[in-house]
Write a structure and sequence with these properties.
Shape: elongated
Distance between the termini: 123 Å
CATH class of the largest domain: Mainly Alpha
CATH topology of the largest domain: hpI Integrase, Chain A
Number of strands: 11
Number of domains: 4
CATH architecture of the largest domain: Orthogonal Bundle
Order of helices and strands: EEEEEEHHHHHHHHHEEEEEHHHHHH
Length: about 450
């Protein structure tokens, strides 16, 4: 090799001109050969050797890296690390057992960033923390009953199993095992379906905000629910129920407002005497009463939907039950004396219809228990089975009376648009938007219902 392309390192004490070290011009040196006691140079095929100092990492060497691969560092514990820039001077470290593994993680993270995932935020959220945020900031704008229902499902059925799982690491398999565990615990299919639906909704928002790439809950099929077949309204069954409730004027009116007017329980509990037009034979649904966990009885204006806010004609038999209840309340008001807590006139327009013997609002659950007891006395609901799985329902419930009312209207040939108006539905078809139920049609339907009820009681 020519002299200007090669130089030699001399031993210590080696001779140069006048004892000086040989001059190596940088522009003339392209290769250095180490001889004698100088260490042999090793090829850069592995990891660059550095002092083994605590807290230090070693830079992995594979030659020149491709664009986007970043700097892989070999850690002293034998693993590898690569850092992903998050913006604003922030980085996220990824670790792997091999250099190949950590580079694969880096490429995955880069793809996730391209798809809009915020790696900095995604690493902090657990499923439980995200659900708590979703309930507090998003669902807090919903109806109180909706908020209470969602919070109960999250607290009882989602968080115990999935709450500690990192949001970004939640998988389809996690959710499938969770649903299987709920089924093993005896949680009904309808509740499991509701829980998965709530989880889907919460994760959809997380996906939209870039906390996760994909809503894995949407990849899991909803548990099938086999709807319980309700029996068609039979005159004998209705007669036995009304007879069982007859001795209690409150319960008797409550049953009739369900089977004879189709009101929901909360709508019936929200009736005030100003909503009951005894002369015209019609009632107006303007408010609801529900018990909300942590808030007690809550009175809210309006019905469940806009279509539910309605003024409808009802069977004269229902109006007779209201007149009887009004007389009972007047007698209880005089008997209670100073212990009376309701309106001074129990039949005043702003006084509630369904109140206790002291004038306070009836507890919906207590009225529901009285209704269940009447159903069992009538023989239309079996005795409660203590061994039945949690959530099991049997026989008639108050909402079933609303189904009876709707079925009765159909059996009596009441036109669909009239029935929809009386029940307070906006569906099932667009026909309801173009057809209008006049007062005459409703009065005719109310007479038909009254005839059905009187035939049932008299038969």
């Amino acid at each position: 090799m020519p002299a200007n392309k090669r130089a030699t390192c001399l031993n210590e004490g080696g001779s140069g001109a006048a004892g000086t070290a040989p001059s190596l011009a940088p522009q003339d040196v392209s290769e250095v050969e180490c001889v004698d006691n100088l260490p042999e140079k090793r090829p850069m095929s592995g990891v660059e050797s550095q002092p083994n100092q605590p807290g230090r990492t070693r830079r992995a060497g594979r030659g020149r890296r491709r664009n986007g691969e970043g700097t892989v560092r070999a850690r002293l514990n034998g693993t590898y690390e690569v850092r992903v820039p998050l913006g604003g001077g922030r980085y996220k470290s990824l670790y792997g057992k091999t250099e190949r593994e950590v580079l694969a993680k880096l490429r995955t993270a880069q793809r996730q960033q391209e798809q809009g995932l915020d790696l900095g935020k995604a690493s902090k959220w657990t499923v439980g923390a995200w659900l708590d945020h979703w309930l507090a900031q998003i669902i807090s704008q919903r109806e109180p009953t909706t908020r209470a229902s969602y919070a109960t499902i999250v607290r009882l059925h989602i968080e115990p199993k999935l709450g500690k799982v990192l949001l970004a690491k939640l998988s389809v398999e996690h959710i499938e095992r969770w649903l299987s565990d709920l089924a093993t615990q005896g949680v009904g299919a309808s509740t499991r379906r509701d829980a998965l639906t709530r989880l889907r909704t919460a994760l959809k928002l997380a996906e939209r905000r870039g906390h996760i790439i994909r809503n894995v809950a949407s990849l899991v099929e909803l548990p099938p629910v086999h709807r319980r077949q309700r029996p068609a309204p039979e005159p004998d069954r209705v007669r036995r129920l009304l007879e069982a409730a007859h001795d209690d004027p409150r319960l008797h009116a409550f049953v009739l407002v369900g089977v004879g007017a189709g009101l929901r329980r909360a709508e019936a509990m929200g009736l005030q005497w100003g909503d009951v037009d005894l002369e015209a034979g019609r009632i107006s649904v303007r408010r609801r009463v529900n018990r909300i966990t942590g808030r007690g009885l809550l009175v809210r204006p309006g019905a469940k939907s806009r279509a539910g806010e309605r003024t409808v004609y009802v069977a004269p038999m229902v109006m007779d039950a209201f007149r009887r209840l009004s007389s009972t309340l007047q007698a209880e008001r005089h008997a209670a004396g100073g212990a009376w807590c309701g309106a001074d006139d129990p039949a005043a327009p702003d006084a509630f219809v369904f109140v206790t013997g002291k004038g306070t609002l009836l507890e919906p659950r207590n009225l529901g228990r009285s209704f269940d007891a009447a159903c069992r006395r009538a023989g239309i609901k079996p005795p409660k089975d203590p061994a039945a799985p949690r959530g099991t329902k049997s026989g008639t419930d108050f909402h079933g009376l609303r189904h009876d009312f709707a079925s009765m209207l159909g059996d009596l040939g009441v036109p669909q648009h009239v029935a929809m108006r009386m029940v307070g539905h906006s569906q099932p078809s667009m026909t309801g938007y173009y057809q209008h139920a006049g007062d005459a049609a409703q009065r005719e339907a109310a007479v038909l219902v009254d005839g059905w009820l009187r035939q049932a009681v008299g038969g």
